[in-house]
Amino acid sequence: MANIAAQRIKREFKEVIKSEEVAKCAIKVELVSDSYTELKGEIAGPPDTPYEGGNFVLEIKVPETYPFNPPKVRFLTKIWHPNISSVTGAICLDILKDQWAAAMTLRTVLLSLQALLSAAEPDDPQDAVVAKQYKDAPDMFRLTARYWTAAYAGGPYSNPDFDSKIRRLTDMGIESHDARVALSSFNWDLERATEQLFS
Amino acid sequence: MARAEFGELHELEGLCKCGICQETFNTPVLTQCSHSFCSLCIRKWLTTKAVCPACSSETHESSLRKNTVLENIIEALERVKKNRKGVVAARSPQKPNARAPSQGPSNSNVNSSNKLNQNLHPSVPISAISDSDTDDSDAFIKTRPSTSKISPKTNVRSNVPKETPPRTPCIKPQTTALNQSLTPKVGASPAVVKVACPVCSVEMPQRVINEHLDKCLSGGTTRSSVATKVAATPTPVSAPSPKVAQRAPDNSSNLPLEPIKKMVYNLMPDAQLRKELKKYGLPTQGDRKCLAGRMQRYVVLHNAECDATNPRTLEELRKYFEKEERALSGPSNTTKFSSMFKTKQPDEDEFDKARKEYIRQNNSSFQNLIEQCRNRNKSKTKEQSVQPVTLSDSEDDPEEVPVPTINKTSKDSDSDSPCDDVQKTPHHKSVQRPKRKVLSIDSDTEDETDFDGRPEKRPSLEGNTSPVLVSKTPVKRELRNRVVHAKVAEKPQRRSLKPKQAPKKEVTKAVVNKASPMKVIDSEGSDSLFDTPSSADTIPCGQVTRSQKEDSGDDALSKFVTLLDDNSDSGSTTDFEI
């Protein structure tokens, strides 16, 4: 890695570790390799959102041209969010694309992602299905996002109704994740989800 | 209290960091939107995007201005830091008195070394400013609190934190206050340091004044002694000063760095690029992209250096640049190459797959066409009373395309015919033609010239029309067929030959039409016989097969499409297939 990139990432790594947010357990970074080219980030779901109580793991890849090009970030934890792909974890956030500026750091990126969780932008979606639900059935979206947080990010809220629906599908030999995706996509309409899964 | 003070210092240090490299500013420059960055960093960034990294407002390289005040602040800050380190190092029990004399001399130098340092700063890494500076900064600290509540010296000694405490992110209001309180001091520090002795009215550093006053009052010291002391001491104590002194003339002897004007690399011819590179003693090998990239990187470095108060010489700059280039080209080049391969390889595979898939899918229709052809051929040959050898031959290998078989026969017949060279000319052309044909079927003009000689000679060929001659050399033909079988392993590939013939056929027809309109119908049969053998003949050489492989996917596909299209209007299809 280019000298400037490695040095800067090292600095930023320390910055995050020393930052107040770490003290509050809001953000975290870990090294994946010694070369500082790949990092693992973690952000806490912001309070008063469906993601509250969850811990979301991120994959951060630092390009050689950093900081002149943005780091490549995606969610490793499955998440139900209009701007994050529920399949790949790809993030649609301007500062990770064309609005990146060299003055941004790992810390600001992680905090921006946290902000994204609390303020979704459904008009510029990454996951069209989720975005549609976010706009058409906000209550259903909130429940689903909370349910996903509980299922994948260790969130505290359970939903027995959803659980039972998923169990119905898993009993039919469907993977629980597939069942969850299908049900979530159809606003937890069991019939339509089943139809989709078996069509 | 002291703790708080160092906290403030750390805040100050945190503020003096470039937003791009996150290091303390090196030759800071100010943007139009009042943000400061290292000259080199911001210039590099602006080559990627013409916006301010901090506020995203439009920024251009031409609008960057040197931030001298900030540079001075950083110098002062560095001195403070060094001083504190020095204090920590000198923590070993020493009486203040013992320290005083050792410090005194260096302080006397404060004025001069300060100026020198200001000149020196950008080119010499901050860490290189050596211990003697600690004394200066010590003085700086000392001068500061003459009005302040605490005596810094004692506090410094007792409370120097080895690790920097975490700096708080929201420090704007405080820092402005700090800056305000600091800036004038930095500017004034040399003036404050010097104090006139009330007795002998000789100016001297504040630190030595007490000692001096003692002596002065006792009548021991004269002006001259102080003066000599001041003059003599700086050299041994302040280590970097000689270096600085050396450097300064060194630089002055060199021409001052002139910023390189903006160049439009895309419009520059290679030679000019090379010339520019040579002008700065840079390597001129590599392709255009390489040259332009190198030039651009160098211009960034060069112009950044122009902002420095004490820029490096061109030679130093060149060496530094070459080192950077080497570091850059080493690993990144390999990754670039590998990525290139990675992106290209699957494409070819995919394409190959798609092509094979296409062939497989349309296999039945090809087969169909072949079958049609064969039937037609059979009927024709029967009509023309061709000997059964041809038929039996094609029956030998039911999958064998009939076209080549017949072609072969005609070819053999041709070889017996007097105009051997005529037969060879189209033969040659057909080898090359597939590629040309691929581009456009309408390239009549070119083909017209190619075939110019043919119509005249054709009548002679037509005279001993091939069907009759077909049977002449069955053994030879069979041998050749064997070769064909052996060489062409893949049937589909061979079948895919046909589309190539299709357009060619059309051209020949057109040529014939133009050259001898009367003979169009007559020549039709012989023409096909005449033309196809050549292409079939190429198979043993493996040439057509190879060229086929080389053809891009679009070509192959388009050919299939033309074939299918032709297939739809039956008239032309029959023509091709024979």
TrEMBL record, chain A:
<feature type="active site" description="Glycyl thioester intermediate">
    <location>
        <position position="92"/>
    </location>
</feature>
<feature type="domain" description="UBA">
    <location>
        <begin position="161"/>
        <end position="199"/>
    </location>
</feature>
<keyword id="KW-0833">Ubl conjugation pathway</keyword>
<dbReference type="InterPro" id="IPR009060">
    <property type="entry name" value="UBA-like_sf"/>
</dbReference>
<comment type="similarity">
    <text>Belongs to the ubiquitin-conjugating enzyme family.</text>
</comment>
<dbReference type="GO" id="GO:0061631">
    <property type="term" value="F:ubiquitin conjugating enzyme activity"/>
</dbReference>
<dbReference type="InterPro" id="IPR016135">
    <property type="entry name" value="UBQ-conjugating_enzyme/RWD"/>
</dbReference>
<feature type="domain" description="UBC core">
    <location>
        <begin position="4"/>
        <end position="154"/>
    </location>
</feature>
<keyword id="KW-0808">Transferase</keyword>
<keyword id="KW-0067">ATP-binding</keyword>
<dbReference type="InterPro" id="IPR023313">
    <property type="entry name" value="UBQ-conjugating_AS"/>
</dbReference>
<protein>
    <recommendedName>
        <fullName>E2 ubiquitin-conjugating enzyme</fullName>
        <ecNumber>2.3.2.23</ecNumber>
    </recommendedName>
</protein>
<dbReference type="GO" id="GO:0005524">
    <property type="term" value="F:ATP binding"/>
</dbReference>
<dbReference type="Pfam" id="PF00179">
    <property type="entry name" value="UQ_con"/>
</dbReference>
<dbReference type="InterPro" id="IPR042614">
    <property type="entry name" value="UBCD4_UBA"/>
</dbReference>
<keyword id="KW-0547">Nucleotide-binding</keyword>
<dbReference type="InterPro" id="IPR015940">
    <property type="entry name" value="UBA"/>
</dbReference>
<dbReference type="InterPro" id="IPR000608">
    <property type="entry name" value="UBC"/>
</dbReference>
UniProtKB/TrEMBL annotation, chain B:
<keyword id="KW-0833">Ubl conjugation pathway</keyword>
<keyword id="KW-0234">DNA repair</keyword>
<feature type="region of interest" description="Disordered">
    <location>
        <begin position="83"/>
        <end position="174"/>
    </location>
</feature>
<feature type="region of interest" description="Disordered">
    <location>
        <begin position="325"/>
        <end position="349"/>
    </location>
</feature>
<dbReference type="Pfam" id="PF13923">
    <property type="entry name" value="zf-C3HC4_2"/>
</dbReference>
<dbReference type="GO" id="GO:0097505">
    <property type="term" value="C:Rad6-Rad18 complex"/>
</dbReference>
<keyword id="KW-0479">Metal-binding</keyword>
<dbReference type="GO" id="GO:0006281">
    <property type="term" value="P:DNA repair"/>
</dbReference>
<feature type="compositionally biased region" description="Low complexity">
    <location>
        <begin position="106"/>
        <end position="119"/>
    </location>
</feature>
<dbReference type="InterPro" id="IPR013083">
    <property type="entry name" value="Znf_RING/FYVE/PHD"/>
</dbReference>
<dbReference type="GO" id="GO:0006513">
    <property type="term" value="P:protein monoubiquitination"/>
</dbReference>
<feature type="compositionally biased region" description="Low complexity">
    <location>
        <begin position="231"/>
        <end position="245"/>
    </location>
</feature>
<dbReference type="GO" id="GO:0006301">
    <property type="term" value="P:DNA damage tolerance"/>
</dbReference>
<keyword id="KW-0539">Nucleus</keyword>
<feature type="domain" description="SAP">
    <location>
        <begin position="265"/>
        <end position="299"/>
    </location>
</feature>
<feature type="compositionally biased region" description="Polar residues">
    <location>
        <begin position="330"/>
        <end position="342"/>
    </location>
</feature>
<dbReference type="GO" id="GO:0003697">
    <property type="term" value="F:single-stranded DNA binding"/>
</dbReference>
<dbReference type="InterPro" id="IPR001841">
    <property type="entry name" value="Znf_RING"/>
</dbReference>
<comment type="pathway">
    <text>Protein modification; protein ubiquitination.</text>
</comment>
<dbReference type="InterPro" id="IPR006642">
    <property type="entry name" value="Rad18_UBZ4"/>
</dbReference>
<keyword id="KW-0808">Transferase</keyword>
<dbReference type="GO" id="GO:0008270">
    <property type="term" value="F:zinc ion binding"/>
</dbReference>
